[in-house]
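chain below, 84 aa
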Amino acid sequence: MLEFFSPDLFVQSAGDWGNPNINIPDWKIVYSPQRGDVAAYKANYSNATGHMGIMENSQQLIYAGSGVSPYIERTLLSNDFWNK
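prediction:
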């Protein structure tokens, strides 16, 4: 059976994760990311509210790419794409 977040804990979008003004219970903002941390930013795209990925280590993350079919990409956190 699948488990779901209760409605009061549900995060609506990547933009929510990337918005430091939204409190997500039991999660905290960190400035020195480590393996397994979520990296996210808020943006105003026509088809998305932002983007998020998972840290592989303190400088590199993986995320869903935007190719023709879904695929995973790997990049450095210092990449301009993630420094919006």
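The mean pLDDT is 77. The longest helix spans residues 14-17.
thats it, cya
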